[in-house]
Design goal:
Length: 375
Amino acid sequence: MSLFNVYPLYQMTPSHAKMCYVYEKNGTKYLDLYGGHAVISIGHSHPTYVKALTNQLNNIGFYSNYIINELQQSVANEIKIQSKCNNYNLFMTNSGAESNENALQVASFYTKKSRIIAFKNSFHGRSNAALSITDNPNIKSKMNEKINVTFLDFNDKNNFNKEISKGDVSSVIFESIQGVGGLDEPETEFVKYISKQCKKYNTCLIADEVQSGFGRTGDFFAFQKHDIDPDIICIAKGMGNGFPVGGILIKDHIKSKYGMLGTTFGGNHLACTAVLAVLSTIKKEKLLQNSKSLENYFREKISLIKSVKKIKGRGLMLGLEFDFEASELRKNLIFKHKIFTGGSANKNLLRILPPLNIQKKHIDKLYNALKIELS
Ligand SMILES: Cc1ncc(COP(=O)(O)O)c(C=O)c1O
């Protein structure tokens, strides 16, 4: 049987990986400044992570959500402590799309409304509702048109108010930093405004922190820069450091009901163990602080390269914008300099999403490679 061919593949086959390096069988070593799409938060095969998952597997790897799993409560407690988000309840899922799908579902249950406001250039995942609120016609089917979605521009208060004041909007979903879209951010004034209007019109505000959460931007959640409290926060990616796990944090005023949500695999013992290992490493290695200080170093160093027009993003969720398409450069970084970086919907942008414990020397390696390629 062949594979269903949907990924344009780079011709390399990793056999193992350690912290911020990925290796091929022949020993070729790559610096991973992409983290497998913002997933590797504490480093590949981090010893704490390997030990915790190995121990857990030797005890119990999985049982369904119809028995008590104390690890889920530990995950909820630790997220609360580290994020300082009070008065939320946790429901665990398996991926980012599933988190967003459940968030929209909860919002619709709660408000008894169905229309959604999303933002232009957004990406929220590949399940039905998640695709409906994703602003990319190339990946949508007829089926995704059935959900009633209005796409608006960031920072356009007038149109936002015109739409939300119609009173039929169940949820507003936004990324504090658009990942796949190319690292654009709404202004604080606008985020505060949509938060206020959501409260006024009985609409749930959903923060999609799937890519930007768990310390990537130097705050535990990227929305925290704006001092708001969304009704629902969606998480995944860096949360599991490669173990497929996600979740939603749901504000207290939204009440749960038996059977309202459900999943077979979500929040299983191995998934919870992966999250707890990530959280303990974030704390022990002070990775929020490292994200912030490495961002400063990154900006200092990389801005010395003249053809970089703009450095976008926050913490270790960064984008380098050029006035030319970056795909050739990205290829050269992989094959000539052995450095992984990422692309985005903005073709002129190179995305940098490394493990949160990278060091200055890794940024220096990128700097030296860019200097050679762009001089
Ligand atoms: C902001 C955001 N939301 C949701 C998703 C979907 O996550 P997943 O691929 O785990 O379903 C992504 C994936 O890139 C994302 O960046």
